[in-house]
Amino acid sequence: MCMSSPGASRRLAGRRRELALLAFATPALLLLGVVFAWPVLRLLSLSVEGGSLEHFEKAALDGLYVSVLGDSLKIAAAVTAICLVLAYPVAFWLSRAGRIGAALGLFALLLPFWTSVLVRTYAWLVLLGRNGVVNRALRDWGLIEAPLPLLHNMAGVLIGMVQVLLPYMVLPIYAALLRVDPDLSRAAEGLGAPPWRAFLRVTFPLSLTGVSAGCALVFVLSLGFFITPALLGGGRVVMISMLIEQQVREFLDWPFAAALSAVLLLVTLAIYGLIGRITRGGRLEAA
Question: Could you list the residue ranges that cross the membrane (predicted)?
């Protein structure tokens, strides 16, 4: 009588488990294909209607669109860097806080999600205006004589975007730090490493998965932001998403808007891959 080997049995059980998981995921995958993948493919097909690449040539060679894309990349990179600097200490504190402290911190972090981005952006208009709450408080405290220009410029756009996107950086880093055993840092300190070196050589490298996920998420969301730069920038800070909307709303030029969307998608995927490669390289170097 032929008996199957333990290895073959495990492989068969693994394949059955994969098929079961695929069966559970199939409805969601079908829904995602219908409501997301198909509309995206249909939009991208508009950019090459008639087999012509003239819309891509215009997007790639016209100085205006290249400049706006470059500005969008700079803004997204700046927002990502600011969010990372602000989010890591918060995530580290949350991962080391007690149960009550962590619950209160997460509640405060998630509270803005209960308000729409549009409402929060209009709130920043009230706060950052020439006679807004911030300038009035600074004048009352004697710190400034003239109102600071905090609206309709890059500063206002960065402030508004960082406020909206900061939780998207905190949560992945927090999740990664929860998986880091604090005893590893204590062991490093017990072997003579100062706390800052134990953090740089032990805790931080082990949290790079969360840093990578947070940076990729914030960068991708920043690159396609529309409401916040449109309102807080006052038309002086233009991002690629605003140009795409303008091509559809004012000129009804769907093919060129689709070409700009395709360029934005390709750049986003390239940056996403670059962030992943840099992070993997950092983890290997730390190891």
Answer: 75-94, 106-130, 150-177, 226-244, 256-275
For residues 5 and 107, membership in a common domain is answered with no
Domain range holding 7?
Answer: 1-36
129 domain residue, yes or no: yes
Complete DSSP assignment for the chain: -----HHHHHHHHHHHHHHHHHHHHHHHHHHHIIIIIHHHHHHHHHTTGGG--HHHHHHHH-HHHHHHHHHHHHHHHHHHHHHHHHHHHHHHHHHHS-HHHHHHHHHHHHGGGGS-HHHHHHHHHHHHSTTSHHHHHHHHTTS-SS----SSSHHHHHHHHHHHHHHHHHHHHHHHHHTS-HHHHHHHHHTT--HHHHIIIIIHHHTHHHHHHHHHHHHHHHHT--HHHHHHSTTSS--HHHHHHHHHHTS--HHHHHHHHHHHHHHHHHHHHHHHHHHHHHHHHH-
- Do 224 and 282 belong to one domain? yes
Q: Are residues 21 and 98 both part of a single domain? A: no
In a domain, 44, yes or no: no
User: pLDDT tens digits, the chain, 287 residues: what are they?
Assistant: 445 566 667 777 778 888 888 888 888 888 888 888 888 888 888 888 777 788 888 888 888 888 999 999 999 999 999 999 999 999 999 998 888 988 999 999 888 888 888 899 999 998 998 888 888 998 889 888 888 888 889 999 999 999 999 999 999 999 999 988 888 888 887 777 787 888 888 888 888 889 988 998 999 899 888 989 999 998 888 899 999 988 888 888 888 889 898 888 888 888 878 877 776 665 555 55
